[in-house]
Design goal:
151 residues; mainly alpha; Cytochrome Bc1 Complex, Chain D, domain 2; two-stranded antiparallel sheet; 4% strand; globular
Length: 151
C-alpha cells in the first residue's frame, strides 16, 4: 500500500508537469502597449459607430454627453472645429486638466495606440456627424498627416 501511495505521489505531479509543458503560453496584449500583439487587439473595424460603442461610450456616454467634469461631452463646438486637434487627442491622449469650450475636464484619456488611420477617421467622422454635430468627415489621409507630424 505504501508503494502505491509513493508511486502516485511521484507519478501524478510528473504527469501534470509534462502536460503543462505541452500547453502553449499565450500572452494577452497590454492596453496601450506598442507590441505587434497589441496592435491586433483592435479588430479591423471601420464602422465609426461600432468603434465608438466599443471604445468610447463608457466615458463619453451613448448620447455623447460625457460625464460631469471628468469626460467632456462630444456635442460642443470643440468637436466640430479643428480636425487635427481631435486627431491629436486620439493619437496622444490627454493627461491632467483639459479646457474645452470654457469648461475644464480632469479625467485622463489614454492614447488610442491600437487604432489605425482608417479607424481614427471613422470614429471621429461618427462623432462629428452625430450627437447634434454637423461637421465634415475626417479622412484617413488627414489622420496620417497628423500622425506623421506628431511622432
Amino acid at each position: 500500500m505504501i508503494r502505491i501511495l509513493v508511486f502516485c505521489g511521484l507519478l501524478v505531479p510528473s504527469i501534470a508537469m509534462a502536460q503543462a509543458k505541452k500547453q502553449p503560453v499565450t500572452k494577452k496584449p497590454v492596453a496601450g502597449s506598442k507590441t505587434p500583439d497589441a496592435q491586433k487587439a483592435v479588430p479591423a473595424l471601420t464602422d465609426g459607430k461600432q468603434l465608438y460603442q466599443t471604445y468610447c461610450l463608457a466615458c463619453h456616454q451613448v448620447d455623447g454627453s460625457g460625464v460631469g467634469t471628468l469626460n467632456p461631452p462630444l456635442v460642443k463646438e470643440w468637436v466640430g472645429g479643428d480636425k487635427s486637434r481631435l486627431i491629436r487627442m486620439l493619437l496622444k491622449g490627454s493627461n491632467g486638466k483639459v479646457e474645452i469650450d470654457g469648461d475644464t475636464f480632469s479625467n485622463t484619456m489614454p492614447p488610442q495606440l491600437n487604432f489605425n488611420d482608417q479607424q481614427i477617421a471613422a470614429v471621429l467622422t461618427y462623432v462629428r456627424s452625430n450627437f447634434g454635430n454637423k461637421a465634415s468627415a475626417v479622412t484617413p489621409a488627414e489622420v496620417k498627416l497628423v500622425r506623421t507630424k506628431t511622432k
